[in-house]
Inverse folding.
């Protein structure tokens, strides 16, 4: 056994734990970051948001690249880290637990204002938020923003980033890059424990932020539509800003221990690049 085998990346181990929330292996996060222009990681003004933090792996891998890319601008390591973590990296977690896990991954402490954090913030959450939100149930008992229903035996989680029509309100700023692996579905209380998609809601709100680059990994079921995805599919197919799609018919190629029917895909959307809509391209 070599040294690397005896000291595995803890986030690789966590990525293999659950089918309920599909955690992102570090190598997949790196594959997605490789789609972005390299010069972003030597730009001290570039800003990055993960709107669906689970383990903090995207922010950690971005931090690694920025720490290397900004050496000439900030030769002092602590000054470099202070700038990167305070001014460039932001996240919105999907639960209180993943918020703490992501802070532990990025800041080496769940309390970003404490003595163990590698960068000191005035507030314990640092730049990784978990705003407490509630579902917005209408008279029909359905949430305005997600598939949750009011009269169910178990309360579905309310994911902050999609429980709003104004996602800018969390940080009140613009982002060059929005990147992540959103929750995929929510039990909708249908027959045989049916489930409704959630990832389309994350993509739609991410587009409202108008980032220069939007990269997400999502189930490929949207290719066929159905289950409330018809509108999302139509928007994706006519979007002339989607520059790349990487298809994984067998999701185990990227999530080895997770079952995901229909496969998965990674897409990159570039605000300032216009190409043929997906529906007009040859495949």
């Amino acid at each position: 056994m070599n040294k690397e085998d005896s000291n595995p990346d803890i986030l690789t181990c966590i990525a293999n734990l659950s089918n309920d929330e599909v955690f992102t292996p570090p190598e997949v996060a790196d594959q997605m970051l490789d789609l972005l222009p390299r010069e972003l990681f030597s730009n001290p003004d570039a800003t990055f948001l993960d709107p669906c933090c689970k383990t903090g792996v995207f922010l950690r891998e971005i931090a690694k690249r920025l720490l290397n890319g900004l050496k000439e601008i900030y030769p002092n390591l602590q000054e470099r880290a202070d700038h990167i973590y305070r001014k460039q990296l932001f996240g919105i977690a999907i639960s209180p637990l993943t918020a703490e896990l992501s802070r532990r991954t990025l800041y080496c402490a769940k309390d970003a204002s404490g003595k163990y954090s590698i960068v000191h913030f005035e507030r314990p959450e640092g730049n990784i938020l978990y705003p407490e939100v509630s579902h917005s149930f209408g008279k029909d008992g359905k949430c305005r923003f997600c598939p949750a229903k009011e009269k169910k035996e178990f309360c579905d989680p309310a994911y902050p980033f999609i429980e709003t029509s104004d996602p800018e309100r969390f940080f009140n700023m613009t982002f060059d890059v929005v990147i992540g692996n959103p929750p995929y579905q929510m039990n909708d209380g249908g027959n045989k424990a049916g489930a409704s998609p959630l990832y389309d809601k994350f993509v739609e709100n991410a587009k409202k932020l108008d980032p220069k680059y939007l990269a997400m990994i999502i189930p490929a079921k949207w290719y066929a539509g159905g289950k409330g995805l018809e509108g999302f599919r139509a928007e994706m197919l006519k979007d002339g800003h989607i520059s790349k799609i990487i298809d994984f018919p067998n999701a185990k190629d990227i999530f080895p221990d997770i079952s995901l029917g229909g496969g998965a895909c990674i897409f990159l959307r570039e605000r300032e690049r216009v190409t043929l809509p997906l529906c007009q391209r040859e495949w």
Notes: The chain has a mean pLDDT of 89.
